[in-house]
Structures are given as structure tokens and as C-alpha cells.
Amino acid sequence: MKSVDILYFQFYRLEQIFNNREKRFYGQRVIKISLITERQIKVNILIIGCERLGAALAMTMCERGHDVSVMDRRGDAFERLDDSFTGLTFKGVPIDNDDLQAAGIESCDVVCAVTDNDNVNIMVAQIAKEVYNVPKVMAGIADIEKETVYQQYGLNSICPTRLTLDAVVSAIDGYEGQQWLQYGNHKVKFYSMPIPKEFIGMKCMEINFEEDEILYAVINQGGNFILVNNSNILMKEGDTLIFSKLVD
Fold it and tell me: Which residues pair with 181 in a beta bridge?
């Protein structure tokens, strides 16, 4: 898998959290999971860290019409931003209150800490949440164990290592479209797979699922997306099954 693909996947998950909505392509149907109305809400976003992910996120949020500010301790990091970037940049120490205030953290709707240092990201997220009461805070955390611990304390995190791991495992196992969603303090995994031979001719209710797993939908050969919703659908050759599983 190319590094640019991994970068895009990391950015895509962050963008989903910013917008509180998601789109999924299953067969010929587009399924949207939405927690807010279709009307785009303009927000004030402070991005801490202007590495590749931070720069890509800043550019896209700016293009969407949001008010975007970017902070990095290195002034040359802002060279990653295109000339079309219309937001603000601040050189400063991410965990310094004076620098954070100069960058506008007190009026932010969203703070996203995506430096290359897990500890810095965690500290920034805690400061934003506990000191400045920023409504929406997220942190990039590369260490999977740290991600699990801090999510238990309500820290909304994105783990590039887990995303990369999941993508590689999905490719090896043959799962398609595997994605993770965070709801409250729990993660839900969605994944699709071609119907196994032993399932052909069975009805949905006859499948023995793993713990905390359900069959969410079936895509038939015609590309029709059928929500299971406790209905006893007869599964046929050529179907694609979509499962959801509560992970933690």
C-alpha cells in the first residue's frame, strides 16, 4: 500500500469526524450516515501540527469554507500549505497557553492535534478540552495501546497505526470496505465480504454470528442494497454481505 493512500485514509477519517457524517458506497447505492443536517456549518478550526496530514486537513477544511488556523513549532512547516490557503498560521509551542491563546484556541469550535508526537497530541487535546472547553477535540495517536487507554477517558483519537493495520489485514483476508466508526466510547467495525459457499441458500437468521456481531445488509447481484433489519432474507450466490461488529 502506498504511503499516500495511508495518508488519505487518515485524513478521510478526520474529515468524517469534523463533519459528523459519512458516506458509504455499497454496490450501486450510496448510503449516508448523518448526525447533522445537510446544511454545512461553518466552524472555527485550530490544527496543531503542519506535517503532511495536518497540511492536507488544513487545505481541505479551508476549501470547504471553514475558518482555519494552523500552529507548528517550526516556521518552515507552513511551506506544505498551498498558495491558495487563506487561513492563519502561528509559530509556537503547542502546549504553551500563551501560544495557544495567540492562535485563537479560546474561540475555537474544533481543535485537532496531529503532530508527530503522541504525547504532545494528548496534552494538547487535554488542555483544549479541560482548560478551554473546546466543543470538539481530537488527537492523532500512533501508539495503539495509548489510543485504547485515552479513549476510555473520552478522548476522540485517530490512530494511523491502527488504520494502516486494518487496511493491510483487510487486504490479506479479502474483506472489502472495512472501516471503523467511533460512537461515544465504543468502536464499531463495518466490513463486507463475498458470500461464503456455506451460506448460499441459508436465511440471514440462520447464521451463527460472533459475539457483538450482526449481519447489517446484503447486496444482491443486481447491486441492490437490502437492510437486514431482522428480516429473514434468503442469501444467494453472488451476494455481498455487510457485517457490523462492536469492537470495544
Answer: 188
Give the count of alpha carbons within 13 A of 164, CB side only: 14
pLDDT tens readout for residues 201-247: 988 888 787 778 888 888 888 888 888 876 778 889 988 888 888 87
Grid cell, residue 47, equals 490544527
Query: Cell match 472555527: residue?
Result: 44
- What's the pTM? 0.61
| Identity of the residue numbered 137 | V
Torsion of CA 81, 23, 133, 111, to 10 degrees: -10
Q: How far apart, in whole angstroms, are the C-alpha atoms of residue 134 and residue 131?
A: 8
CA separation for the pair 227, 191 (Å, rounded): 14
